[in-house]
From TrEMBL:
Organism: Micromonospora eburnea
SUPFAM superfamilies according to UniProt: NAD(P)-binding Rossmann-fold domains
Xref: Pfam families: Epimerase
Alphabetical list of PANTHER family matching this protein: BIFUNCTIONAL POLYMYXIN RESISTANCE PROTEIN ARNA, UDP-D-APIOSE_UDP-D-XYLOSE SYNTHASE 2
Superkingdom of origin: Bacteria
Domain NAD-dependent epimerase/dehydratase span(s) in chain numbering: 5-243
UniProt protein name: Nucleoside-diphosphate-sugar epimerase
Amino acid sequence: MMARVLVTGAGGFIGSHLVEALLARGVEVVGLDRRRLGEHPIADENLAAAVGNPLFTPLCRDLSTDQLDDAVDGCDTVFHLAARPGVRPSWGAEFVDYAQANVLGTHRLLDACARSGVRRLVYASSSSVYGPANRPSREADPTCPVSPYGVSKLAAEHLCLAHSRRPDSQLTVVALRYFTVYGPRQRPDMAIGRLLFAAYTGFPVTIFGDGSQRREFTYVGDVVAATLAAAHVDARYAVVNVGGGASVSMRGAIEEASKVTGRHIPVQVADAQPGDVSSTSADLTRAGRLLGYWPTVGLHEGMARQSAWLVNLSRDRLAAFTS
Ligand code: NAD
Ligand code: UGA
């Protein structure tokens, strides 16, 4: 049973869902994010249900620069979701932020965890550590990231595992390799939200390449269930895939979005993007064994839930879908 936990990236898409699930279980949550509540509309909307709950303490900190000891103090478990996400923008000058947030930020958090005797860190890793694959990826497969983002997520995964292997360490680590997550609050740069936005507004979605690329889309509620289960895995360290149970082509996703909304999806085509792999697919054997995990929400139902959320979104937040 968790008493008090830290969630990093609490103001983000997945982090805010995790915060709500923990609060609903009566867990005391410190929610750390570099987005300051009251000044950042995305974090404000994501955490609207958590703010005011006496079990929730928001904390504005940047993992790569601020002191973190008070954030981890008294926490038995740390859920580390804070990162600069997104595959395609990670080339060029932007990489500085990826390196600082994802690599340096993780290193500094791990040091603080070691100082305060945290027992378990659950790390939000990524399918992007695998690189090209022509069958469902298994955790023991060689890693071969093909984007700077994937490199930064793999580097941080290794940092977490190195800490758990230190002979003098109390910290145990479960790294979860999430596969393309979707659902309410999904980041506006991601594909499913852009398809649904196109359906309702007629603003065309740009498809990179010929639409044959495949993704194992994973519903956010399933990701949260796996993340909660990871707190209780009996292991010094483990790496576990978290996928949606099926790999779907972008053309298939467009068809599904059209069925869910009852509308045509206007599409424009652009070049395939460097760093995007042609297919992701997760072998979920280990997730079933270690986490008791199996995805429960399929693409049609998950898209319907995201669609219901999207149509009620504030004007300010909708603007992000066109940039
Ligand atoms: P998100 O951008 O919505 O949330 C990330 C949060 O982390 C943001 O609120 C951001 O402000 C915060 N953050 C970033 N850098 C920080 C720093 N230096 N200090 C403090 N806070 C910082 O992203 P998301 O889609 O919810 O992703 C959450 C995690 O899951 C990330 O680690 C991401 O790499 C991982 N992941 C996401 C997906 C996906 O499909 N969304 C898939 C695989 C892995
Ligand atoms: C997602 C997240 O953004 C990453 O942070 C995460 O680490 C990664 O999943 C993962 O699984 O590890 P991605 O798979 O690129 O990355 O997710 P989307 O942005 O939803 O893109 C899915 C596919 O749609 C990609 O092939 C992309 O090229 C395509 N796409 C996306 C478009 O064709 N047009 C768009 O406007 C957006």
